[in-house]
Amino acid sequence: MIPQSFQYESPGTMADAIALLEKHGDEAKILSGGHSLIPMMKLRFATPEYLIDINGIPGLSYIREEKGTVKIGALSREAEIEHSDLLKKHFPIFADVTKLIADPQVRNRGTIGGNLAHGDAANDHPAVMMALQATVIATGSGGSRSIPIDEFFFGFYTTALKQNEILTEIQIPVPPAGTGSAYHKLERKVGDYATAGVAVQLTVDGKGVCKAIGIGLTNVNPIPLRAVRSEQALLGKVINSENIALAAQFASEDCNPSADLRGSEEYKRAMVAVLVKRMVLKAAERAMGK
Amino acid sequence: MNKVITVTVNGVQQVLEVEPRTLLVHMIREILNLTGTHIGCDTSSCGACTILLDGKSVKSCTILAVQANGKSITTIEGISTEGELNPIQEGFKENHGLHCGFCTPGMIMRITELLKDNPDPTEEEIRWGISGNLCRCTGYNNIVKAVLYASAKMRGVPTASTEPEFV
Question: What is the pLDDT along chain B (167 residues), one digit of tens a residue?
């Protein structure tokens, strides 16, 4: 399988990349890790006339903490995220999720920015970013703007990024002490998309009361889904089996999975409930240092 | 419009003209005639096309040849010196780590990076480390033994070939 012919551009600066996007309009696509785009081009589902490769632009790959915020450069590879000590310190969820994204070779290429900008509800980072209350930075010719993760995903492969914008950074608030996070996806085999996936980050006080919570769901809705009612079922309440069961039930009711080779709608709803229970418990255990 | 790229392949610098849509694996097999790198699934699932790009194991069916411009490529043809098997190749030979051999070049290139990052992996780390490489002869047990053998040999620990398992 070979992609349809296209013109290849490899700008050396962000300004050049944005200028090329403005020049070529809808005929251009940004190439980051390429492990979603190139397979789509090989299948001719995507047939861009211009491919703008941002891999040669310096300064887009970093993971650092600044004033209570962790900043991840969009071109950071999944393998770098998997092995980052800074992310391990604040967000155990990244070790959970990266291990489940594709396989080691793909993680050597795939980037966190591409995973989000692709706008696919089957990808794993969108739900994680919802749990972590992340903000996406988009850069265009007029400068950069911040997009809260809840306003980023619009529809099937559609995001809030404008045609002339590039996702350049992800910002995640460093959580307070007493916070834990966890992710798991049910997958049939290594490298598969999730049958269902659940991301949770929560903060508990000394009495076991939930002071903050984020829950994101993977591949059980047309767009990445925040489980709002599930969050409300736990926020301000003691994390006990009764409240967790309610949160699990709400998530399974509020998602909209499609039946496919990975299972029926009913099965997927049931798995969402199971995973919400397990991930809330795991995040709570981590929050309490167990 | 074709692009002229410069790549270092198994230590030798090459200047090549490629179409932008040429996949790296096609450049390796059809322009450079290095057919040890195999095409299995062609969908970045099976790992048969795994090579090293600047030392990182990658699936060459899902990278464009133009993306290798200025970079260094190592294929299965580039890992032994003067006809001697390297420790990973020797591990596969001694432990019956291959049957039909189709997945072997990709396996060995992946394991090359795995042992560089983690010279003394556990069995679980090995299995997780080769999770992007499929062997349809179901030879994983002997492949794991081959990696343990190579790991021991590279660390200077005495090696013993084990009885191969036939399943």
Answer: 899 999 999 999 999 999 999 999 999 999 999 999 999 999 999 999 999 999 999 999 999 999 999 999 999 999 998 889 999 999 999 999 999 999 999 999 999 999 999 999 999 999 999 999 999 997 799 999 999 999 999 999 987 666 666 65
B115, B131, B134, best to mutate vs chain A, most A CBs in 10 Å: B131
What's the rounded Cα separation, in Å, for the pair A276 and A127? 12
Domain A64-173, CATH: 3.30.465.10
Where does B87-154 sit in CATH, by number? 1.10.150.120
3 state DSSP class of A46? coil
Which tokens sit at A170? Answer: 């992800």
User: Which CATH topology does A7-53 take?
Assistant: 3.30.43
Chain B neighbours among A 112-171 (CB < 8 Å)?
none
C-alpha closest to that of B148 among B138, B163, B159: B159
Nearest to A8 among B3, B57, B114 (CB): B3
**CB proximity A1 to B under 8 Å:** yes
Q: With CA atoms as reference, report the closest residue to A200 among A238, A226, A223, A174.
A: A226
Contact check, Cβ <8 Å, B42/A1: yes
A53 touches chain B (CB under 8 A): yes
Distance, C-alpha A15 to centroid of its chain: 26
Contact B114 A104 (CB under 8 A): yes
Q: Mention the CATH class of domain A179-285.
A: alpha beta
A3 vs B67: CB contact, 8 Å cut-off? Answer: no
Tell whether A48 is within 8 A of chain B (Cβ): no
* Of B112, B118, B119, the residue nearest B133 (C-alpha): B112
- Residue B167's identity, in one-letter code, is V
Q: ipTM value of the model? A: 0.95
**Domain ranges within chain A, ordered by starting residue:** 7-53, 64-173, 179-285
Give the chain B residue whose CA is nearest to the CA of A77. Answer: B56
Encode pLDDT of A2-61 as tens digits: 999 999 999 999 999 999 999 999 999 999 999 999 999 999 999 999 999 999 999 999
* Interchain pair A105, B132: CB under 8 A: yes
> In CATH, what number does B3-78 get?
3.10.20.30
Report whether A159 contacts A126 (CB < 8 A).
no
Of all residues in chain A, the one with the smallest CA distance to B41 is A1
| Tokens 């991840």 -> residue | A72
Pairwise CA distance, residues B32 & B34, whole Å? 5
Distance of CA B37 to the CA centre of its chain: 8
